[in-house]
């Protein structure tokens, strides 16, 4: 026993010597972060070329999968415009209102939008420190980056509700600045009203500093004053307690900006009339310095992808009596089905607004018809039903559709406007947000139907979609991704997830 006790003591002393010598060596070693990270206040944009590259990176975002695909998928397949298509369970969850917090589309979009904001912060925080950049160009970049950031936050607050407001670009992480930058590294979600206030503030900067849109296509391929007014109109219409007078004010500013409806609806999408008179803010797939390879067309046509956003029974019916908008929105290709129940169905519908598959397809963030119909909403909400219907008819006249009947009530006017937006803006990523804005999501989406073949009667019966009644108020906001919650203790989950 005595020998065992002595041996233990010797062992304890040896371990102690090793530990203390190890600690001494460790304490003499500089923190790794101080070796690899420059000070936070180091000049991030050293010259004009750095600044130009930084603003270019904001534009390159529109070649990302969020803008090339997910934006349209959420707006259309999340609504009654389209069915998911493809073969991904995560996409079916969105289409069928049964999203879970581990859905990878939800996770990537949360990360994308927050990362997009960080790129904008780099320009906003540092462009005024660039020594060889003219004051005019500094202002232009500040205006452009501010409008980019406003748009990205707007997508975030519409999708998740409360959303982080990060304004600092983190150029380094080290022992001296960690406590200071911690709120930006692990941000909390901010109240919806605060997020909208930040969006409006950025738009106001863009109104002053962003370039004016001209009749040249190139001016419409980047943030501009017309786009700032269009986004403000959308923001004031969507925020809690909408300010319809502001919607009218900013819609009028757009309308007075020299934009006109194109005489031929199909010119909007044929990729031969880029940067046209109706375009307010357009994402350019080629030329004029574009750095985007527009791969979105292949996703929707299924040329080398599993085809997504299959046109719905609802949109097909709504466009059935329209020739011009139908042929520009939906294309049916000859198809042979192996299933005997579908032998008589020889043509399969595809969305047709994205149709150029050589990576040059343009798409719109805002165009005039969208803003005319948004102003119509505002007029309806302020009691001018006649003025609202006049704007709807202006849009319909362009596609040779007859005037609609006068609205009999505010709700009737809103329904007529939403129906017009449904057919005018189908496959442009708008419908999900339109229905949410007007509080009509559950009312409309819970009644979705489709034609189901009846082998007894050998006809197609119109039946309720199996998942239509899944939708609840909780589904109107996406969950915060579980992986993000696990990594950031300052975030909270949305109800129902």
UniProtKB/TrEMBL annotation:
Presence of keyword Membrane: yes
Protein family according to the UniProt entry: Belongs to the SusD family.
Cited Pfam families: SusD-like_3, SusD_RagB
Native organism: Flavobacterium franklandianum
Location in the cell: Cell outer membrane
Cross-referenced PROSITE patterns: PROKAR_LIPOPROTEIN
Domain RagB/SusD: 347-497
Record's GO cellular component terms: cell outer membrane
UniProt entry keywords in alphabetical sequence: Cell outer membrane, Membrane, Signal
InterPro entries linked: SusD-like_N, SusD_RagB_dom, TPR-like_helical_dom_sf
Protein's name according to its UniProt entry: RagB/SusD family nutrient uptake outer membrane protein
Domain SusD-like N-terminal as annotated: residue spans: 95-236
Gene3D superfamilies found in the cross-reference section: 1.25.40.390
Signal peptide (from-to): 1-26
Lineage per the UniProt record: Bacteria, Pseudomonadati, Bacteroidota, Flavobacteriia, Flavobacteriales
């Amino acid at each position: 026993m005595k020998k065992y006790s002595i041996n233990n003591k010797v062992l304890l002393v040896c371990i102690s010597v090793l530990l203390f010598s190890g600690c001494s060596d460790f304490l003499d070693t500089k923190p790794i972060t101080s070796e690899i990270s420059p000070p936070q206040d180091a000049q991030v944009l050293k010259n004009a070329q750095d600044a130009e590259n930084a603003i270019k990176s904001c534009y390159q975002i529109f070649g990302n999968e969020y803008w090339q695909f997910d934006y349209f998928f959420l707006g259309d397949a999340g609504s009654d415009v389209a069915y998911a298509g493809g073969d991904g369970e995560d996409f079916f969850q969105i289409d069928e209102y049964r999203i879970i917090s581990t859905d990878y589309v939800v996770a990537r979009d949360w990360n994308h939008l927050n990362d997009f904001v960080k790129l904008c912060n780099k320009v906003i925080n540092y462009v005024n420190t660039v020594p060889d950049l003219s004051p005019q160009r500094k202002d232009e970049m500040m205006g452009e980056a501010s409008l980019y950031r406003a748009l990205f936050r707007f997508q975030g607050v519409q999708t998740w509700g409360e959303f982080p407001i990060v304004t600092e670009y983190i150029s380094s992480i080290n022992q001296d600045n960690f406590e200071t930058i911690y709120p930006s590294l692990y941000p909390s979600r901010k109240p919806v009203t605060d997020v909208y206030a930040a969006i409006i503030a950025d738009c106001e900067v863009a109104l002053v500093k962003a370039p004016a849109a001209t009749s040249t296509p190139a001016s419409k391929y980047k943030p501009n004053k017309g786009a700032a007014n269009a986004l403000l109109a959308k923001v004031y219409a969507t925020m809690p307690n909408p300010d319809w007078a502001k919607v009218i004010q900013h819609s009028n500013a757009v309308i007075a900006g020299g934009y006109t409806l194109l005489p031929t609806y199909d010119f909007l999408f044929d990729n031969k009339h880029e940067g046209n008179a109706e375009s307010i803010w357009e994402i350019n797939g080629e030329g004029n310095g574009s750095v985007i390879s527009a791969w979105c067309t292949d996703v929707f046509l299924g040329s080398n992808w599993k085809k997504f956003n299959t046109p719905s029974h609802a949109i097909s019916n709504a466009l059935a009596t329209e020739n011009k908008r139908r042929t520009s929105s939906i294309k049916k290709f000859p198809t042979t089905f192996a299933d005997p129940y579908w032998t008589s169905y020889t043509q399969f519908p595809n969305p047709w607004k994205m149709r150029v598959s050589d990576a040059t397809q343009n798409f719109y963030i805002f165009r005039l018809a969208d803003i005319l119909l948004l102003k119509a909403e505002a007029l309806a909400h302020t009691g001018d039903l006649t003025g609202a219907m006049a704007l709807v008819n202006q849009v319909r006249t362009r596609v040779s559709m007859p005037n609609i009947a006068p609205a009999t009530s505010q709700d009737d006017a809103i329904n007529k406007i939403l129906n017009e937006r449904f057919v005018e803006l189908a496959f442009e990523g708008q419908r999900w947000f339109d229905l949410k804005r007007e509080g009509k999501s559950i009312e409309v989406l819970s009644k979705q139907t489709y034609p189901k073949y009846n082998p007894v009667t050998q006809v197609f019966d119109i039946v309720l979609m199996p998942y239509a009644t899944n939708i609840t108020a909780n589904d109107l906001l996406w969950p915060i991704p579980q992986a993000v919650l696990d990594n950031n203790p300052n975030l909270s989950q949305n109800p129902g997830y």
